[in-house]
Design brief:
alpha+beta, Alpha-Beta Plaits, 98 residues
């Protein structure tokens, strides 16, 4: 059985943009959760710093993750997100179950 692809993404909203980032992310999350190979897409804000976002993602396998990356919604989401966050893009950390 193939290993799942697991990662988390972090990013920081520009000052005054936290609610817009949350709204954008909420809409994107609905679409990702509907993708056939998505297992978990959990988008959150830090309690102590609501401009910081943490997204935990699990895909069935690498093929499902690649399908997610090539899904049509990703390009406009990432373009819009890039304008609202401090970092050049979301910071991805890949994980492996133990």
């Amino acid at each position: 059985m193939a290993e799942p692809t697991i990662l988390h993404a972090t990013f920081t909203a520009r000052p005054g943009q936290g609610d817009r980032v949350a709204e954008l992310l909420r809409g994107f999350a609905e679409g990702v959760r509907a993708e056939e190979g998505n297992v978990v897409f959990d988008a959150t804000r830090l309690v102590d710093d609501p401009d910081r976002f943490f997204v935990y993602e699990v895909y069935r396998d690498e093929a499902a993750f690649q399908a997610h990356l090539s899904a049509p919604a990703g390009v406009p989401f990432n373009a819009a997100l890039q304008e609202l966050i401090v970092e050049p893009s979301s910071q991805l950390t890949f994980l492996r179950r133990i």
